[in-house]
Design goal:
- The chain is built from two helices and three strands, in the order H-E-H-E-E.
- The chain is α+β, with helices and mostly antiparallel strands.
- It has a domain of 65 residues.
- A hairpin with a 7-residue loop joins strand 2 and strand 3.
Length: 113
């Protein structure tokens, strides 16, 4: 009985001493969430034209994309906030025949910030 009493007194003392002799440390953790109202938007506008003649397809596309950009400027989008994003020319063949061109496809996209 005496041994148990001594053990009950000695063990907590040893544990306290072990905690006191450990190096000083600070442990911090946290979590945060911020909700804000958006103040900017990005809009991607594109024009695709198809024509049997590449020059005509490109010319039609240029004309249409100019109209789109003019509309954006009328809505007071600054020229510095307009950026060409994508230009692509592709061709399609008749009936999956890789020798006869059916039409050319011209695609242009602009990004408005």
């Amino acid at each position: 009985m005496r041994a148990i009493l001594v053990a009950l007194l000695v063990v907590p003392t040893l544990l306290c001493h072990a905690q006191l002799s450990s190096p000083n440390a600070v442990s911090v953790s946290g979590d945060a969430q911020v909700n804000v109202v958006p103040d900017r938007v990005t809009i991607l506008l594109g024009v695709e034209t198809r024509n049997k003649n590449l020059d005509e397809a490109s010319s039609q596309n240029d004309s249409l994309i100019r109209q789109v950009l003019a509309a954006a400027r009328r809505l007071e989008v600054n020229a510095s906030d307009i950026q060409t994003d994508f230009i692509h020319v592709d061709l399609a063949y008749q009936n999956n025949d890789s020798t006869v061109v059916d039409y050319y496809k011209v695609t242009k996209k602009s990004r408005l910030f």
